[in-house]
Amino acid sequence: MLLVLMVSACGSTTSLTRQSLYPGMYEERPVTLLVMPPINNTANVEAKELLYTSISRPLIEAGYYVIPPALAMDVLRQESAYDAELFLDRPLRQFHDFFGADAVVFSVIEDWAKQGIGIHTKIRYFIRSTVTDRILFDRTCDLFLDLTPDSGNTGVLGALVDLAAAALSTALTDHIEAARKANYYIFRDIPSGKYDDLYLKDQDIRAEPSNVTKHVK
Predict the structure, then answer these.
(1) Which of 50, 93, 125, 146 could disulfide-link to 176, CB 3.0 to 4.6 Å?
(2) Mean pLDDT by 10-residue block, N- to C-terminus, for the chain (217 residues)?
(3) Cβ(35)–Cβ(73) under 8 Å?
(4) CA quadruple 202, 51, 73, 96: dihedral positive or negative?
(5) CA distance linking residue 86 with residue 68, whole number of Å
């Protein structure tokens, strides 16, 4: 019994490392990434454009070369490849040949809307190889951005003031802030790229859950 428990415990620890969750990232070692326009499954027509502008930064900070979004968008539109849905299950070799991309970053927006005094986003991100077409990285973030003000007001009048301020904040706050936070929580667990000091040295770092749920201010 003790031996079985020890083996089981070792297996559980191993399964939580970056090496075990994202083996393809270490085996294929992508350097250049192409970010595809997000797939928007919500009624928020602006979500696609807003998310697209915010994905590249955390990937660059993680040590990857990301093809400039403006350039990529122009080319994708010219080549009738703007709709990422068309390439979810298709070979991606053309993006390797045309852009020199080692992998393509997809994102699927499942929810992005005001909910009460805050903004809710649910986004899946995954990275597919342009050489083998395998999924190298796959995570989902369900995030609520709480915009309730911390004013310290007390009493009924104070509560009403806070409520009004929160409503105004929700109306004026750019929804992209919620997407930026989702990007952060997703890509902070990605194996380091070639231009980061931890490149090929972070295999044993404990990985975070694939499905992230966050309530943040």
Answers:
(1) 50
(2) 46 72 98 96 88 94 96 87 90 95 97 89 97 98 87 52 47 70 96 98 96 94
(3) no
(4) positive
(5) 21
Helices (H), the chain: 2-14, 18-21, 23-28, 47-52, 56-61, 69-78, 93-99, 155-172, 176-187
The answer to whether residues 35 and 69 touch, using CB atoms and an 8 Å cutoff, is yes
Domain ranges of the chain: 2-216
The predicted model scores a pTM of: 0.83
CB 86 within 8 A of CB 76: no
Return d(Cα 39, Cα 204) in angstroms, integer. 33
Dmax over CA atoms of the chain, in Å, equals 65
CB distance 114 to 87 below 8 Å: no
Q: What's the pLDDT score for residue 175?
A: 78
Using an 8 Å Cβ cutoff, are 192 and 26 in contact? no
Q: What's phi and psi for 134, nearest 5 deg? A: -80, 155
